[in-house]
Write a structure and sequence with these properties.
heterodimer, A: alpha+beta, 3 domains, four-stranded antiparallel beta sheet, three-stranded antiparallel beta sheet, 12% strand, rod-shaped, B: mainly alpha, two-stranded antiparallel sheet, 6 strands, 64% helix
Chain lengths: 463, 322
């Protein structure tokens, strides 16, 4: 009798196991489009055999474990490439904006500089003309406005970056907390010998997202929990504890801090990776550099024009006046302060001789010549080429970023495909598994009904 | 390794995205005719483009300046022609007056004509264009020449401008205009140089006629006086001096003519430069229409192929075979 009951039991385990396997297949199919899901697999193993009259007879089948298709190497590589991608993506939005600001149309700052000196050239053909004088004043004002507009745009781009950083911190903190929770859950589940597949998938996905935004580094601690830290070593998640990131507005810019054990640690650009690093670099290095160059240009232009202008004589009898408000005392943001100091066209010193005769154009010629003669600072650039250098710098960076972004994106896509090729759900595979387990289930059912018939036959022996 | 639904669709998605982006770029290039719309399209072209554009705007300015210079010089040349006629007529009168058979009344007529010629010369010297006096140096808003009421033939001294028959209110400066990058050209003549024979006129001090040169007004006045007085020696001297004065005018007129032709050449040069600069600009920023349309066609074909592949992917499913 024992053997028949044993057979019934074996049939039962087979039914249950195949059913379980089909459930897993169903779950795989359900998650075919789930981002970061790793295909799960029922690991079947025979129930330990029992010694029966010196024969070891199997007792059926059981699901020993539900494992996931997982490749640590690919996951790590994907994580690393995602950091590169994030860094370029963080630069890309700001660069698109900057390319609009430093454009190559005729309405850029170079055009305003051209028009300003053109007005001086026109004045040199009729130095006594009131219209020409007003034109020079007006073009000077427009030049100041153009400088203000472009620095204003730079501020706006920096401000957008600041807003993005502040807004990003909220979701980052959420992700860090979730990751710490997952660490705990995985620990609890796996302490009982099971594997927390979906929690691990979820954690991997979170790490990838954090890699893209912060360029985090991870390692597994002695309790099997994933420790997350910034590239510089500042911890973000330790075990089941998540640190808090805070965005602090100091001056015009937003800075990041991590609260580590009640102590606020400043996060500098060197401590960051991924998207945030790209944004910080744009804001603190690139845009700041452009702003500095514009300030140099504005200060140099004002000084050069003022020096020449002060040497000339104006019809109202004045001499030694500055054309632009003196920027000598201002050390920062000179571009914002470029303004015409003269209030009346009669103060324009077009004449090179003290009599300031209406036909005297000597000084106007000298100022007009600055456009081609004068070199900015220690460079060998004229005002115009100095600015075109800035445009080219933005262009080169944008082109490089475009290329690097495409490259990094292609690399991540490739790695994601590689990962999915290993861990992803293939419908064909699942369908075949489904048939396989279905057949297994059907056979065990058939087996059970056979055993049932056999038992029936035995039971009828008495009657 | 296997191809899953996600990898297939991710791959198709990226490719289609890339292609439509590329197509968009080509279409924008075709529509605008420009291959350089943002700096990153070709960062190396930025500097030449902006520089060429500045040069173009400068060329336009130079052309305008040159046009004005040519106008001023043309007007000055007309007036100098007028001066030449006056001097010619004065010489004729002096030749006639040297004839000893003239009566005092005849000589008075000739002397009166000489006086009139002097007035005419003053008018010519005071010519203005657009309210600006041509021969006033930098003092272009002040009428430069006026008869000197204190003139006394007896005290006339070429070395003292206060004793001259015509006083000069202008200065000795000549206008220079920029007619090319770093290139200026003298476009006017100072009245003092032209009519008074003084280079480097000092408006505040006393001026004297340069040696070997002539004060045209004084020569006419002295000729008139010689004719009135009927002094043959003085008349002979005047005739020689008038000849010299006319030469002085011709010489300056010739110089003006040379400069005018230089201005004309400069204009031609700038026009030529403008065409060259436009060609350079076009090479850097304009798209080759045929090439762009070819590229668009090619890209569209590739895009269509990618779309049809995408469509076929969903047609093939294991579910249809189970």
């Amino acid at each position: 009798m024992t053997s028949l009951l044993n057979a019934l039991n074996a049939g039962k385990t087979s039914l249950l196991t195949n059913q379980k396997a089909i459930e897993i297949v169903g779950n795989n199919i359900a998650n075919v489009n789930t981002e970061g899901y790793s295909r799960q697999n029922a690991e079947l193993s025979p129930v330990p055999a029992v010694n029966f009259n010196d024969f070891f007879i199997g007792q059926g089948v059981t699901v020993a474990n539900v494992s996931r298709d997982y490749n640590l190497f690919i996951t790590r590589q994907l994580q690393a490439k995602t950091i590169d991608y994030g860094a370029e993506a963080g630069r890309s939005d700001a660069l698109t904006e900057l390319e609009r600001v430093f454009n190559v149309t005729e309405n850029n700052l170079a055009g305003s500089i051209d028009r300003f000196f053109d007005a001086w050239q026109e004045l040199s053909t009729n130095p006594g003309g009131a219209v020409e004088r007003d034109m020079v004043l007006q073009r000077g004002e427009q030049l100041g406005d153009a400088f203000r507009a472009i620095t204003g745009e730079l501020d706006l781009v920096a401000q957008h970056l600041n807003e993005e950083i502040s807004a990003g911190v909220v979701s980052l903190n959420e992700q860090l907390t979730t990751l710490a929770d997952l660490n705990q859950r995985i620990n609890l589940v796996e302490i009982s010998g099971q594997t927390a597949n979906s929690a691990r998938d979820q954690r991997d996905l979170l790490v990838r997202e954090l890699s893209e935004t912060l360029g985090v580094q991870t390692y597994t601690d002695n309790r099997g929990m994933l420790a997350v830290q910034l590239p510089g070593g500042i911890p973000l998640v330790q075990g089941d504890r998540a640190m808090t990131l805070t965005a602090l507005t100091t001056g015009a810019d937003v800075q990041l801090q991590v609260q580590v054990g009640g102590r606020a640690v400043e996060v500098t650009q060197a401590n960051l990776g991924g998207r945030f690093q790209g944004m910080f670099e744009m804001r603190d290095s690139f845009i700041d550099g452009l702003r500095g160059d514009l300030d140099t240009l504005a200060a140099d232009l004002a000084a050069a024009v003022n020096t020449e202008h002060a040497k000339g004589y104006a019809p109202d009898g004045s001499t030694g006046l500055n054309f632009f408000a003196d920027l000598g005392g201002i050390t920062t943001n000179q571009a914002r302060h470029l303004q015409v100091a003269l209030t009346d066209g009669a103060q324009i010193a077009a004449a090179g001789q003290p009599a300031a005769a209406p036909g005297d154009n000597e000084n106007a010629l000298r100022i007009a010549a600055l456009e081609v003669n004068h070199t900015v600072g220690t460079s060998s650039d004229t005002f115009d080429t100095f600015f075109s250098q800035l445009v080219a710098t933005v262009g080169i960076e944008a082109a490089r970023n475009d290329l690097a972004l495409t490259g990094a994106r292609d690399a991540t896509v490739q790695l994601q495909n590689l990962r999915d090729g290993f861990s992803g759900v293939s419908l064909e595979e699942e369908m075949i598994d489904l048939i396989q387990y279905q057949r297994g289930f059907e056979s065990s059912a058939k087996f059970l009904s056979t055993v049932d018939e056999m038992m029936n036959a035995i039971l009828q022996l008495r009657g | 390794m296997k191809a899953t639904q996600q990898t297939t669709y991710r791959m198709l998605n990226t490719r289609l995205g890339d292609m439509s982006l590329q197509l968009e770029k080509l279409r924008s290039m075709g529509a605008s005719g420009k291959k350089l719309t943002v700096a990153s399209d070709d960062p190396t072209a930025v500097r030449p483009v902006l520089n060429t554009r500045k040069q173009l705007s400068n060329v336009d300015r130079y052309l305008e300046t040159l046009g004005r210079a040519a106008d001023t010089m043309g007007a000055a040349d007309t007036q100098l022609g007028q001066v030449e006629n006056i001097m010619q007529r004065a010489k004729e009168i002096m030749t006639g007056a040297g004839n000893g058979t003239l009566s005092p009344a005849d000589r008075t007529v000739l002397a009166d004509e000489l006086a009139q010629l002097r007035d005419q010369l003053i008018d010519t010297a005071n010519t203005s264009v657009n309210g600006r006096f041509l021969f006033a140096g930098y003092q272009e808003n002040i009428k430069p020449f006026a008869a000197n009421p204190a003139y006394d033939p007896a005290t006339y001294d070429p070395a003292n401008s206060a004793t001259w028959p015509v006083s000069y209110q202008g200065d000795g400066n000549v206008t220079r205009l920029e007619i090319g990058t770093g290139q200026t050209e003298q476009v006017s003549l100072a009245g003092s140089d032209l009519f008074l024979g003084v280079r480097g006129w000092d408006p505040a001090g006393t001026n004297s006629v340069d040696s070997g040169r002539f004060d045209l007004f004084a020569e006419l006045a002295r000729a008139e006086e010689a004719v009135r007085a009927g002094d043959p020696a003085a008349m002979q001297q005047s005739l020689t001096d008038l000849e010299g004065a006319a030469d002085q005018n011709r010489q300056l007129r010739a110089q003006l003519g040379v400069r005018a032709s230089r201005v004309e050449t400069a204009m031609d040069d700038q026009e030529g430069l403008k065409i060259d600069l436009k060609a350079i600009l076009s090479r850097y920023e304009d798209a080759d229409a045929i090439e762009v349309f070819n590229d668009i066609l090619q890209q569209e074909t590739a895009f269509q192929a990618a779309l049809s592949v995408t469509g076929r992917v969903s047609e093939l499913s294991i579910l249809d075979y189970l």
